[in-house]
Amino acid sequence: MSLKDLKEKIINEIALTSVVGHYIPITRKGTTSLAVCPFHDDHKPSMHVTNEKRFYKCFACGAGGNAIDFVVNYKNLDFVEALKEICDHQGINFDDYYQKKEKPPKLLMAEKILTKSSQLYRKLAETKAYEKYEEFIKKRGLSNDIAKTYSLGYAPKDSKLTSYLSSIPNEKERSFALDIAKELGLIKVDKNDNKSHYDTFRDRIIFPIWDQFGQVVGYTSRAVFDYQKAKYMNSRESFIFNKKHILYGLHLAKSSIRSKDAVILVEGNMDQIALFNKGFTNSVAVQGVALGETSLRNLKSMTTNFYLCLDNDQAGWNASERIHKQCVEAGITPKFVDLNPHKDPDDFLQAEGSIELQKRIEGAKSFIDAQIDKIFPSTLPEVLDAQLALLNHCFAILAPMGESLEATERAAQLAKRIGLSSQPDQIINNYKQFLKNEPQSFPNSPKEIDDPGLMTEMYHVDEYEMDESYLQYQEEELLSASALSKIETTLLSEIIKHPECLTSDKIGELLDFVSSNEVKKYITKLKEIFYEIDENEFVSIVSSLSENGSFSTQLKDTISSALKNYRPVALDENKVSQIVFDINKKLQEQKLKLLIEEYKMRIKACATKEESVELMNLFSKAQQDLKKVKDLRHK
Questions:
Q1: Which pLDDT score is estimated for 134?
Q2: What are the structural domains, with CATH classification, of the chain?
């Protein structure tokens, strides 16, 4: 049985009034069941709950849907969480319908080591035997509850983790665990004795880092003595940890982000902890200088109201500019929280308190307006050339917003603010001309995407991904899709016929052949859900993914045709490697053949001998490259 079966059971076999009535009072009036709508300020029963139609509808605010929709919206849960909750109070065994695929031994061991090490560091901190840890907690004003929520720990200098791993009785398992711990960067080999190990983190406060599902994937650590060279040491990136895919605290903040319909972005773990500690539970910390594509997409599925609350210094401003640009290209206009005169959110809270920070958040202006304010001189120029130069500078800031109404209206207002007397239409036309002359990465323009996801993320379900009716990108705008190239349709077909290649770490090399945004998005989403799809569900769920994703007809037809040739194949590392190699080779051949045909046509049309010679050289090189590709063999 599958989640699809569970969904149908809940909707078709369980009375809707039983599900809704678990949360709100329902009254019977004739043949109709009524309830006070919980989704708006309702003073009389406006919500109709109909068992026969399996549908609830509020005729005042328009809220409506099936039993699962109600729990999703009422409890601010994702789809799978809603299914679990309904199962709990309806006496259904959720595990009968939800079977995760077996994880590779390497990943299982990594998760086990990270979970156990986190528990070990936390247990050591709770002994109160380490004075530096106690001083840190007291100085930061962190309660025991917060320390427990974040599993704050302490790593002493005597390599407790190495001792724990070395005590594993089974020699084979012990050796495997030590090898994985080394690969994760948790322990190191003694230079003077290659059979001895020691802990990477020693005499440090430990901050576990989780993925969005609550699995520990790495650590940040803080030095406690002045002689320690690095104040902060982080886990190195590995097959389980990639910081561009991590938002610190997201597993704790998800529900709050949905219920408050807003997210506060900070930098630094302590800033996120400080905010959470003071009631700003919809905050997350960026791990690095920019948001990964996966992180941005996850946040966007929860809210489109972003507040940038990064450090109040040049580095923080630069990071805010990068994140702002990413958000604008995704159709989001973030707001800027001014922390002046304090350095970061933690310092601000300690000095000003929660009420003042809430005022700053409520009064936050769009980041793009903060950018413009930053470049405006205290005294406006009176010379026309200087005024026009300032306007062009403003145009450059507005450029990532393209020709949207937000941008064009600002352009007209800024011209007036600078002191120019031109009509708004003329200013807007000049702005549009500026965009044509200054290539930028605008909304809906093709752009490179990040590695589609971490190894751990492929084993989880989140944000309505497992059910047919929820398999979509959760983006408001339709995907702008131009005609797909032969290379792109070939890649799509091969991946659908051989989805096991999605498990390869070389999938990114295949995406390098793609320029179509919708193809990249489709493959990325498919990679994220692949490990959650049972073999017997693959065809139906993949079909739903394309049908419900506002994709082009060409992409849908390509998927539909390829599914006819899909045959389940057991995951095998060597076989996967061979498949990826074969696809890569086929795509290279197609790319070079298209290039050769292009050179043929250009040679026929060239007007000068010099141009002809140059094209002939390029034509010859492409033919040589094609021969080399054809001769490639899988190692």
A1: 95
A2: 3-96 (3.90.580.10), 105-241 (3.90.980.10), 244-371 (3.40.1360.10), 464-611 (no CATH)
| pLDDT tens digits for range 439-469 | 544 433 333 334 434 444 444 433 333 333 3
Which residue type occupies 31? Answer: T
SS3 content of the chain, % helix, strand, coil (to 5): 55, 10, 35
**Contact yes or no for 211/230 (Cβ under 8 A):** no
Asked if omega into 424 is within 30° of 0 (cis), the reply is no
Q: H or E stretch including 207?
A: strand 204-210
Question: Does 423 have pLDDT greater than 60?
Answer: yes
Long-range contacts of 406-412 (CB under 8 A, 24+ apart): 406/333, 407/431, 408/432, 410/368, 410/369, 410/372
* pLDDT value of residue 468: 33
Specify which of 324-338, 355-369, 455-469 reaches the highest per-range mean pLDDT.
Answer: 355-369
Main-chain phi, psi angles of 489, to 5 degrees:
-70, -35
Rounded CA separation 131/205 (Å): 11
**Cβ neighbours for 331, distance < 8 A, ≥ 6 positions apart:** 304, 443, 475, 476, 477
Q: How many CA atoms lie within 13 A of 258 on its CB side?
A: 16
Q: What's residue 361's pLDDT?
A: 96
Q: What is the mean pLDDT of the chain?
A: 84
Q: What SS3 state is found at 584?
A: helix
pTM greater than 0.85: no
Is the per-residue pLDDT at 623 higher than 80?
yes
Distance of CA 238 to the CA centre of its chain: 18
In this structure, what are the phi and psi dihedrals at residue 209, rounded to the nearest 5 degrees? -115, 130
In DSSP terms, 286 is beta-bridged to: 247, 267
Question: What is the residue whose two structure tokens read 């678990």?
Answer: 22
- Tally Cβ neighbours within 10 Å of residue 381: 14
Tell me the C-alpha to C-alpha distance, in Å, between residue 131 and each of 125, 136, 358: 10, 9, 34
Task: Please compute Rg for the chain using Cα positions.
Answer: 28
Q: What tokens does 43 get? A: 């003073």
In one letter, which amino acid is 152? L
pLDDT at 572: 67
DSSP labels, 333-344? --EE---TTSSS
Residue 606 has pLDDT above 70, yes or no: no
* Cα dihedral 252, 258, 260, 263 sign: positive
